[in-house]
Amino acid sequence: MIKLKGLEKSYRTRAGQTWVLRQIDLEIPEGEFLTIMGPSGAGKSTLLGILGFYDHTWEGEYFFQDAAVHRLAVKERAALNKRHVGFVFQQFHLLDDLTVAENLDVPLSYRDIKKSERQAIVADTLDRFGIVAKKDLFPSQLSGGQQQLVAVARAIIAKPALLLADEPTGNLHTDQGREIMDLFKRLNQDGTTIVQVTHNEKWAAYGNRIIRLRDGWMEK
């Protein structure tokens, strides 16, 4: 599904060039559950952002399915994101002016799905995550854990081919975290390709491969 060749990311500062990712060569076959680990500042979240077509300022080659992403315009990359990717952000990134139910509807609105069907999918998802009572609340009215649950629900609601998760259980207690990881495992078994970033060794073990980043380099 994904192939990276010589991927690099850097910033220009007064002190010179600061490297975030160096010479990343990585293949992620369809159906894999990959975990990315490493210390803070290693480049994990940056790599996830590039994989999800959110970050466009990088060098190297990125192939996604049949598309050479490095040759695509930003608008074309955004279309790939909307069509294929679900993303659980570390900081939630829920839309503050939309209710929980409306936030869940956003990824569905990018697909060719009738409004009545979207409403049914949202209702099922609210029930599945135990947040029916929160459907008319805004993100600011939710706890951190509740926002995290909504963020996970939003990421998977449109059944993306690629699910990217940046510390997806970071604001959840252990039981909620296990429920989310069990859900990810089931999604993966049903064919969803998953790439997660985590510091938790127990959650990392849910994947079938672990890669480690250090100072922007992928450890061999």
First CA to last CA: what distance? 21 Å
Strand order in the largest sheet: 6-7-8-3-9-10
CATH-wise, what's the superfamily?
P-loop containing nucleotide triphosphate hydrolases
Nearest-angstrom radius of gyration?
A: 17 Å
What are the segments in which pLDDT stays under 50 over at least 5 consecutive residues? none
- SS-based structural class? alpha/beta
- Give the second-level CATH assignment, the architecture: 3-Layer(aba) Sandwich
Tell me the overall shape: globular
Main pleated-sheet profile: 6 strands, mixed
Any idea of the CATH class? Answer: Alpha Beta
Query: Which fold name corresponds to the CATH topology?
Result: Rossmann fold
Helix content: 25-40%
Q: What's the total count of β strands?
A: 10
